[in-house]
Every structure is written in structure tokens, then in C-alpha cells.
Write a structure and sequence with these properties.
There is one protein chain. By secondary structure, the chain is α+β, with helices and mostly antiparallel strands. Among the domains are: about 190-230, no CATH class; about 235-430, Rossmann fold. It is about 40% helix and about 20% strand. It contains 14 helices and 21 strands. The strands form 5 sheets. A 7-stranded mixed sheet has the order 17-16-15-18-19-20-21, sandwiched between helices. Strands 1-10-9-4-6 form a 5-stranded antiparallel sheet, with helices on one face. A 4-stranded antiparallel sheet has the order 2-3-7-5, with no helix packed on it. Helix 7 links the parallel strand 18 (about 340-345) and strand 19 (about 365-370). The chain starts with a strand and ends with a helix.
Length: about 600
């Protein structure tokens, strides 16, 4: 728990002494009664700040779906229970995981909570791949005057986790390179059953009749057996470029890493369907490696690794990346004869150098380069050729499907394309269009409107002295501009200008009720305006805040009404005929009393 003072009322004492000085100078009680309002405000702030609230809160959080599909909307409902005393100003900011995008509502809320009551709010996030755990909600509790602010972190008893495992993309095929040539194909390993001729040997008892070379027997009378080269599935490791340089967003806010992971899923799916042993690994600061294997269970492991593996996280890594150490570690894990498929958007040339080094160590590399620009086709680099040659060899050979998916390229080291991605169906299209949500920190509407209304009333109170109306009007305009643009200095400056207009009213011998009422309205205008700006900065305009705003405005209005009633009533009842010095001493004594209450 953290507690600190907000310093909202630092200038109140100065207003008191300014009013006293003007009253003594012009020998008029009207400016002194303006000081009465300032004394009432100081007492209000001191009394409220002297008893800061002790929040006793619990939070419940529910999600509509814990295992959503990628792009599915998930509704989050948060309930805050007050198990302690009355809390006039409670501001809640829920701990939304960074990768999740809020698409509807707001994870922020402000309200007033009586003892034993609760407040509920909800918002909607869009599911993205990965396992996302919500943080504790941050709760700010203020006293009714906003003098002190207490910050606490409150979370539910059990963690709230949303786990999204997108389906692997569907590709009809993905040709692999031959081990010793640039032609596509699988690794020929050993002699056995197959279709490719290998050699002939002497007949051995038990050899199948179908394997006997009958042509040779007809020519020479010798029995011989034909041997074929047996094909085995090639071990393949799909390497995803996850360096911090790759975390750049396209026009829709989707990072290049997301595109590369999606492409990797399609490659893995096609190779598993073809019977190849496939694994995945990340090339970045965070280590993730899944050894090549086959089967339905392994397909699920790949899907889970691409979604939740540390290397493939949607957020950029903060760890230091040592590429040489990473390459050595990866080479120790690679099976003998393995091929690499590197999924990278090719944001720089370093990954090209890396692919060439794997090629030099005997691991054939195929580069898959998703087009993340959405405008032009990015030509992939070839590890065995220069970047310029690769662009010339591969440019324009990717296929852009009619469904609107972005093209994917894969090329062999010579720059010749190994294949093209097949068009995806509507249900497989990725990434979906996602609306971007931005925090709207504009001032809260209700308090802003109340501030302008109170400032307008304060300006009307200057009509008894027509010369002061323009001054007060300029102040009201400045306050209105500040409260709607979120500029605290304009709010304070406009309120000070209106207050000075009412202090000047004492020079014209007007009835003290007018400056007194105008000063009270100015106080309400400033308090509501400053509250609107602060509320917008902390919880935003999109959050539900009306109950907290109305509670705060009611307290300010009550203080203003009491100040006018007590000040004007006391003036007529007891001090109407007394010297101005007596009123000054009364104001000074009130300030000392307010200070003692504060301490």
C-alpha cells in the first residue's frame, strides 16, 4: 500500500491572505468574505485529508472464455467489493496482459463505494496466440476532497489466464531440398524398398521373386537381385526469426514476428502431412527448441510451442542476444542430416548471414519470407547468393491469392522458388482485421460540464459591476478551454481570473453577497475542472465514472453553500458593524485552525 498527498490545495492559504490584504486596503468587507470561502475550502481539505480512507477491498474477475480461438472476443467482468468504510473515490485499473488488445469498453473504472457494496464493470479483449495471465488490479482510493491518495494492488484468489492456441495454417505442400543437389526431394538413406534404382547383386536364397533381374538371367543364365534406394523422411527444423529487430508492426498493428510464426505453422503442417519429422526453434534472445518428430501428439506440441513458447512471445524481448552462442547451441541440437526452414521477414541482412553459416556447416536452408508490408512483394534472400541476386531470382514469383492473404515466398539457395503458398480459406485467413484501441485521456465529461456551468454562474455574479464582466468572461473561457483540452494551468488560470474579478468588486462597494457567491461558484468550477482532468489522466474518458464525479461535485457544492451561508449570515449577525481589522483577525484565526486540523 502506498499513500501520498496530491497537493491539490497548495494555493488556498494565499487566497485567504490576498483577500485580507484587499479588504484592508479598500476598507470593505466584500473581499474579506471572499476569503471566507477560501477558509472553508482549506478546512474542508484539512478535515478530509486528516482522515485518509483505509481501503479493504476484494476483486473478482471472470472471463467468458479461457481457451478462445485466435481473433475471438473475450469478455472480462471485474467486480470490486468494499468490505470496509465508505470510499468516496475509488479508481480501478485492471491488469490486462500487454499482448491483449481491448476492443470494446474500458478496463478502467471510477466510482464511490459504500460499505458492503460492490461495483461491476466489463470490457472486451481480442484473443491472440499465447498464454496470457492477468495482473492484479491497481486501485487508487482518494478522500472526498482529493487531499490524499492511497494505491493498493488487489487481485482475485486464483489467477486469471487466457490461453489461445491457434490452429496451424493449412498448406497443400512444401517441397524440401535434396541433400546433395539443388533439386527438391527427400533424403535418400540406405538400401531397401523404394522406387529409385540403386544396384544389382548376386541372388541370395530368400530374395523376393519380384526383385530378381529376369532380363540378366535370360541373357547369361545368372541369377541377380535388383536393389533400390530407400527414401526416409527428412528431419526438418523450422527456425523462426524472433530477434528484437523483427518486432515491427504493419499498418494494422500486427508484428512481423506474428507473420513469421503463422508462416512457420503452415510449413510444419504441410511437412507433417507429407510424413516428415519436423521440429521448431526460435532465433532470438529467448530459447525455445522442439526436436523433430511425427504424429498427432507432436502436431499438438508444435501448435502449443508456437503459441506459448518463450521465443515466440508477442512482446519484444528485453534480454541480450548473443547470436554466436545461440547458433552453437542450436547446432548441437540439430539431428544429423537435418534441413532448416527459416521463417523471417528479412528486416535486415544479418539473418541472411546466419543462413549462409548454417549452409556452410552442412545444413541446407530454405528461407520463407512473409510479406509484411501489405503493399509490395518482398523478395526473399538466398543464403548461397547475394541479397541482390536473390531479389532478382525470386522477385515476382510469390503468389498472392484472390482471398486477400499476403504472399509467402520460399526459395532454395540458388534463388529458385521451391513452391508457392496455396490460397487460404476465409476461416484460415490471418491476421484478421483488428481495431486498435488507444487510451483516451481527455477529461471526464460530467465534471467538465459541471465546471463550465459553475464558472458561468460565477461570471453572472459580476453583472452588478459591468466593468468586471469581460474579465470574468475571459476567465470562464480559459477554464472551459482548459477543462476540455485537459490543461491544468488553463483551468487554474481561468479560475484565478474569475476570483480576481470578484475581489475587485469590493472596490465598487457592492453588496458582499455577490462576491461571496461568485467566489463559491468559482471554487466549485475549479474543483470540478481539476477533478475532470485528473480523472481523465488516470482512468480515461471511456471508463464509467459518473457516480464518482457526482459524489465529488456534491461534496464541493455542499462546502460552497455552507461557506456562503455561514459567511454572509455571520457578516450580518455579528460583524456587520465591526472594523475591517476584526474580520482580518477572524480570517487569520480560521487559517491557523485549518492548519492545526491538517497537522
Amino acid at each position: 500500500m502506498k499513500r501520498h498527498e496530491t497537493d491539490r490545495w497548495r494555493g488556498v492559504t494565499a487566497v485567504v491572505f490576498l483577500a485580507a490584504a484587499v479588504g484592508v486596503l479598500v476598507r470593505s468587507p466584500a473581499p474579506l468574505l471572499v476569503g471566507v470561502v477560501a477558509v472553508a475550502v482549506a478546512g474542508y481539505a484539512a478535515f478530509a485529508g486528516g482522515r485518509p480512507p483505509e481501503p479493504t477491498l476484494t476483486v473478482e474477475r471472470e472471463v467468458s472464455e479461457t481457451d478462445p480461438d485466435s481473433g475471438e472476443d473475450v469478455t472480462v467482468t471485474v467486480t470490486v467489493h468494499n468490505e470496509g468504510e465508505f470510499l468516496p473515490d475509488v479508481r480501478v485499473v485492471d491488469g490486462v496482459p500487454e499482448p491483449l488488445n481491448v476492443v470494446d469498453g474500458s478496463p478502467r473504472h471510477a466510482t464511490a463505494l459504500r460499505s458492503g457494496r460492490h461495483a461491476t464493470f466489463s470490457y472486451t479483449v481480442e484473443a491472440v496466440r499465447g498464454e496470457h495471465t492477468f495482473d492484479d488490479a491497481t486501485v487508487l482510493v482518494r478522500d472526498v476532497a482529493g487531499t490524499t491518495e492511497t494505491e493498493v494492488a488487489v487481485g482475485p484468489d486464483a489467477e486469471t489466464t487466457v490461453r489461445c492456441l491457434p490452429m496451424l495454417a493449412s498448406l497443400d505442400r512444401f517441397p524440401l531440398r535434396g541433400q546433395a543437389s539443388e533439386r527438391v526431394g527427400r533424403i535418400a538413406a540406405g538400401v531397401g524398398s523404394g522406387t529409385e534404382f540403386h544396384a544389382t547383386r548376386e541372388y541370395r536364397p530368400g530374395d523376393p521373386l519380384a526383385r530378381i533381374d529376369w532380363n540378366r538371367m535370360a541373357r547369361s543364365g545368372d541369377l541377380a537381385t535388383v536393389e533400390f534406394r530407400e527414401e526416409q523422411s527428412a528431419p526438418v527444423v523450422v527456425l523462426v526469426d524472433t530477434r528484437v529487430q523483427v518486432y515491427v508492426d504493419d499498418s494494422r498493428g500486427v508484428s512481423a514476428v506474428d507473420h513469421a510464426v503463422h508462416a512457420a505453422g503452415g510449413v510444419v503442417s504441410a511437412l507433417l502431412d507429407a510424413g516428415d519429422r519436423v521440429g521448431v526453434a526460435g532465433f532470438g534472445p529467448r530459447w525455445t527448441y522442439l526436436a523433430p518428430s511425427l504424429g498427432r501428439d507432436h502436431r499438438h506440441r508444435v501448435r502449443e510451442t508456437l503459441a506459448t513458447g518463450a521465443a515466440f512471445a508477442p512482446t519484444p524481448p528485453e534480454e541480450q542476444f548473443l547470436p554466436t552462442v545461440h547458433r552453437r547451441r542450436l547446432r548441437k541440437r540439430l539431428p544429423s542430416g537435418a534441413q532448416l526452414v527459416c521463417c523471417t521477414p528479412l528486416v535486415d541482412d544479418y539473418v541472411v548471414t546466419t543462413c549462409r553459416r548454417f549452409e556452410a556447416h552442412g545444413y541446407p536452408v530454405t528461407v520463407v519470407s512473409p510479406d509484411v508490408t501489405g503493399e509490395t512483394i518482398r523478395a526473399p534472400h538466398s543464403p548461397a547468393s547475394s541479397a541482390g541476386n536473390a531479389s532478382a531470382n525470386c522477385a515476382g514469383r510469390a503468389s498472392r491469392s484472390s482471398t486477400g492473404t499476403r504472399p509467402t515466398h520460399w526459395c532454395s539457395p540458388s534463388g529458385r522458388p521451391n513452391g508457392v503458398a496455396q490460397p487460404m480459406s476465409e476461416s484460415e485467413r490471418w491476421p484478421p482485421d483488428r481495431p486498435e484501441s488507444e487510451f483516451d485521456d481527455r477529461p471526464a465529461r460530467t465534471s467538465a460540464l459541471l465546471a463550465v456551468a459553475a464558472a458561468t454562474l460565477a461570471t453572472i455574479a459580476t453583472v452588478v459591476v459591468p466593468l468586471l464582466v469581460p474579465v470574468a468572461s475571459v476567465g470562464t473561457l480559459a477554464l472551459a478551454v482548459g477543462v476540455f483540452l485537459g490543461r491544468r494551468r488553463l483551468v487554474t488560470g481561468g479560475a484565478v481570473l474569475v476570483l480576481l474579478a470578484h475581489l475587485a468588486g469590493g472596490l465598487f462597494g457592492v453588496d458582499p453577497l455577490w462576491p461571496l457567491a461568485g467566489a463559491a461558484a468559482t471554487f466549485v468550477a475549479w474543483d470540478c475542472g481539476e477533478y475532470a482532468v485528473g480523472l481523465g489522466e488516470q482512468v480515461g474518458r471511456d471508463a464509467r465514472t459518473r457516480q464518482a464525479e457526482l459524489t465529488h461535485a456534491a461534496a464541493s457544492s455542499l462546502v460552497a453553500v455552507l461557506a456562503v451561508t455561514v459567511g454572509y449570515g455571520g457578516y450580518w449577525a455579528g460583524v456587520g458593524g465591526r472594523p475591517v481589522v476584526a474580520l482580518v483577525l477572524l480570517l487569520v484565526g480560521a487559517v491557523v485552525l485549518a492548519r492545526s486540523l491538517s497537522s
